[in-house]
Amino acid sequence: MTIQTGLNGQLRVASDKSITHRAIILGALAVGVTRINHPLLSADTWQTIHAVEQLGVSVEVTEDQALIIKSPGALAIRSNHFQQPLQFDFGNSGTTTRLMIGVLAGLRIPATITGDASLTRRPMNRIVALLANYGAEIQTTDGHLPVTIRSGITSDAINETLAVPSAQVKTSLMLAGLSAGISVVIFDDFKTRNHTENMLSSFGVAVDCQAEMIFVAGDQQLVATTVTVPADMSAAAFWLVGATLQPHSDVVLADVNVNETRSGILKVLRRMGANITLMHKRLQNGESIADIRIRSADMLIGTTIAGMEVPTMIDELPILALALAVAQGDSRVLDASELRIKESNRIVTVTKTLQAFGAQINETPDGFVIAGVDQLQAPNQPLVDYDDHRIAMLQAVAKLLTSNVKLREEIGTIAVSYPDFYKDLAVLIDD
Ligand SMILES: O=C(O)C1=C[C@@H](OP(=O)(O)O)[C@@H](O)[C@H](O)C1
Ligand SMILES: C=C(OP(=O)(O)O)C(=O)O
């Protein structure tokens, strides 16, 4: 695929990965039949589906690609005596791993968990050490996978302050509490993504969210429900940046989750001069969603991204760096050292990728410094995607904008979060 003129057209990008993982797990902890409309069915979310199936929960995909989850609920799963420790391989999915460690510790199910080469490099102590505070016996391999859960939590309450800006850690603790039927208080000064909190009331669970504090009382049974998953801001981000940078573009992305804890990229692109409008803003299962119109920008101005903004766009920073690379003046990304422990070390892999396109970008311990250039060029050597889906999509968009050479569709890594990436690209090019 090559681009002759702008990106044009309307589409609904991949459904939200974070919300799909959570809906599957909450559906598995709830008593009854949960329906998930528009789930993301990607390599990562299949890991979560297979995980709950191993707990004895039934998951079916309907003809219209909805998920039907039938479960006896957390209490029944907890009293089920598994003959052997369960064995899990969660592939590339950090969210499945961290969330399921909490669930298994809460349900008190012995298990061994491993994953692919990328996942086994990622830190697990951030959740394992916290669960140990509540009596769980969990062994890591030098802080990494394989992780063995020998026994679950024994305390009658969880009370933690997040030390790292991680929604996975927060959610894992909440799910541990819900799985065990005990109360949970978490202080989250970072205001990480709050999808679990938003979704719980649909499952009949009362959650008290006040400023930085989240409280879920114990002994609340989850009741099956219907959840409709919006489109993913992290997938939309590729076209937000693509259409902003490519002249003559006019794109509408339908049903995108614009939850404040996830939509920092919109704020940043707008302050850089991007032409972005939100239409039909509405609420769905506690989440704000909107249709987003993006037209090419005449000019972008560099900016600094730091502090509280970072968690609101952590997965979008790789593609946002492409916009910073061609913005006028200097840009900085600070306080983003979490990027080093994603599917790849994204501070290194974003820097190397954009340097190959001629960007003036250098890594710092916790981010990047970038001096904007007028134009990027297609790289003169083949690129590797570091087995990281967000880097693979960053490279695809960068190649599209810089080269007249036909884009090769390398879907493997991308299927982790956005299996229809190239189909959607074809819509925007052909329209
Ligand atoms: O909770 C979630 O669904 C996620 C949280 C983030 O990870 P951290 O919790 O490690 O920041 C994000 O990078 C990941 O893609 C999904
Ligand atoms: C970091 C990501 O996911 P996970 O942590 O679930 O592997 C991501 O999707 O960019």
TrEMBL record:
One of its GO terms (molecular function) is 3-phosphoshikimate 1-carboxyvinyltransferase activity. Phosphoenolpyruvate binds at K17, G94, R122, Q168, R346, R390. Keywords: Amino-acid biosynthesis, Aromatic amino acid biosynthesis, Cytoplasm, Transferase. Its main location: cytoplasm. PROSITE patterns: EPSP_SYNTHASE_1, EPSP_SYNTHASE_2. GO terms for biological process: amino acid biosynthetic process; aromatic amino acid family biosynthetic process; chorismate biosynthetic process. Gene3D superfamilies: Enolpyruvate transferase domain. InterPro entries: Enolpyruvate_Tfrase_dom (IPR001986), Enolpyruvate_Tfrase_sf (IPR036968), EPSP_synthase (IPR006264), EPSP_synthase_CS (IPR023193), RNA3'P_cycl/enolpyr_Trfase_a/b (IPR013792). One of its GO terms (cellular component) is cytoplasm. 3-phosphoshikimate binds at K17, S18, R22, S166, Q168, D315, K342. It is an enzyme of class 2 (transferase). Residues 3-425 form the Enolpyruvate transferase domain. Pathway: Metabolic intermediate biosynthesis; chorismate biosynthesis; chorismate from D-erythrose 4-phosphate and phosphoenolpyruvate: step 6/7. It is found in: Cytoplasm. Its EC number is 2.5.1.19. It catalyses: 3-phosphoshikimate + phosphoenolpyruvate = 5-O-(1-carboxyvinyl)-3-phosphoshikimate + phosphate. The active site is at D315. Monomer. Belongs to the EPSP synthase family. Catalyzes the transfer of the enolpyruvyl moiety of phosphoenolpyruvate (PEP) to the 5-hydroxyl of shikimate-3-phosphate (S3P) to produce enolpyruvyl shikimate-3-phosphate and inorganic phosphate. This is 3-phosphoshikimate 1-carboxyvinyltransferase. It comes from Weissella cibaria. The lineage of its organism: Bacteria, Bacillati, Bacillota, Bacilli, Lactobacillales.
